[in-house]
Amino acid sequence: MSEFANVLRAWRDRVTPAEVGLPSGAGRRTSGLRREELAALAGVSVDYVVRLEQGRASNPSPQMLRALSVALRLTDDERDHLYRVAGAAPPSAGTVPRHIGPGVQRIVDRLGDVPLAVFSASHDILLWNPLWAAIGGDPAEHTGLDRNLVWRHFTAGHAGVEFDAQHEEDFASDLAADLRTAVGRYPRDAALAHLVQRLRASAPEFERRWAEAKVAEHRSSRKTLTDTPVGPITVDCDVLTAPGSDLRIVVYTAVPGSEDEQRLDLLRVTGTQRLSATPA
């Protein structure tokens, strides 16, 4: 059996269902993940996982390797080993990190009662919890550049989110400055260079801010999310940087004791179901 098949099976066996938010259940023959559980987490078929573990599937794509790395909660060294034994080049040090390691996964797990999402340094959304999808729309409905916060902000606007005029200007300026910082930090990232090129060509408001040559990182703000299933919710948005990575964990919280906190509590119960009045 190949080294790829060996490590894939060994790493699947060591991840417990509880670690990935799945019920343990009774009568399990293994303490680790079942193949169907890994398949669901990685977004592939069970048959494909079986073929990978039996050495019958070769040359998995970088996207597939990234999905497996996240599902198995691999460290950076383990992820790089998985890429190499699959015959793929590990992500370069000159490109934007997109791997979500076990430390960031644990932070996400422990903050699960608030809306949060994990973004790359170039503002691609990589991971989100159900409450994030409920409060601001499900990112799974978008693909390609539409998964990027900066692209969507400058090309599609921010329907469903209200800022005051000064904050709107500051937020847009900070997003452009964030990308400039990322370009300096990751000069060999082709996807980041393509994003900036497209934004400069397609979005005059981005080009204006890009020309200012501001370098900064966005950290916090206050906004009102107007299109939630339970009505408008005003939240504080804080951006945390995970130690040892350049991932950004964006967290929404409401003022304690406020009506916004009550609506956020209600949203935890209703999820994405919209509430309607009962007919008289």
Task: Quickly describe the structure.
This protein is an alpha+beta fold. It has twelve helices and six strands.
Write a structural description:
- With 280 residues, the chain is α+β, with helices and mostly antiparallel strands.
- The chain has 12 helices and 6 strands.
- The protein has helices spanning 3-14, 35-42, 46-53, 62-71, 76-85, 102-110, 130-136, 149-156, 165-185, 190-202, 204-210, 259-270, and strands at residues 116-119, 125-128, 161-162, 220-225, 233-241, 248-253.
- A 6-stranded antiparallel beta sheet has the order 2-1-6-5-4-3.
- Helix 2 (35-42) crosses helix 3, helix 4 runs antiparallel to helix 5 and helix 10 packs across helix 11.
- The longest helix is centred in the middle third of the chain and has 21 residues, at 165-185.
- The radius of gyration is 21 Å and the shape is globular.
